[in-house]
Write a structure and sequence with these properties.
Blueprint (H helix, E strand, L loop, with lengths): L2 H17 L2 H4 L8 H4 L6 E3 L8 H6 L8 E9 L10 E8 L4 H8 L3 E2 L8 H4 L6 E3 L1 H6 L6 E7 L4 E8 L1
Length: about 170
């Protein structure tokens, strides 16, 4: 082995050590759980403007078509000082069409939420007290590049959505 080959091999090994060896392992076979992978509230930044228009929500999450109303806030995650693509967040309380919440409660495997949704403070007063959660509920309100953690009101028509996407 020549000195040049040894140097290139050493550089390759060093690069693997610096970048980590997980790239050699491949993707995880475990499904992503949005309840454990969603960014925390501390990373959210936005203009603080309360919104009630439905169109931006229904175009991102088609399951919301026919919603009776909504209160929501949005913005970006992380620091504006970091270059690159932004992740966007939306925290919303949406009133579903009549009968939709009852159908979700009857057909999905749901359990009482163990805590409150991590939404921006301005939305917290709109969040119902007793909520139900479940992976199927999250999937029902996730679409395309938008991952949602959903909380369904236990006995009403509201759903709380914590949405992240590009």
């Amino acid at each position: 082995m020549s000195a040049r080959t040894r140097a290139l091999t050493g550089a390759g090994v060093a690069l693997l050590l610096v970048t980590g060896t997980t790239a050699c392992i491949g993707p995880s076979t475990e499904p992503e759980n949005p309840r454990t992978t969603m960014p925390s509230e501390a990373e959210k930044s936005g203009d603080g403007r309360e919104r009630t228009d439905l169109e931006p929500l229904t175009t991102r999450i088609p399951t919301l078509q026919g919603a009776a109303g909504a209160v929501w806030f949005s913005g970006t995650l992380g620091s504006d000082d970091v270059p690159g693509p932004s992740l966007y967040w939306i925290d919303a309380v949406v009133t579903l069409p009549p009968g939709a919440a009852d159908e979700l409660r009857a057909t999905l495997d749901l359990a009482p939420a163990s805590g409150r949704p991590e939404v921006v403070d301005d939305l917290a007063t709109h969040v119902p007290a007793e909520l139900l959660v479940g992976p199927e509920l999250d999937e029902a309100f996730s679409d395309g590049g938008w991952r949602t953690t959903a909380y369904l009101e236990q006995s009403g028509d509201d759903v709380v959505l914590v949405i992240v996407g590009e």
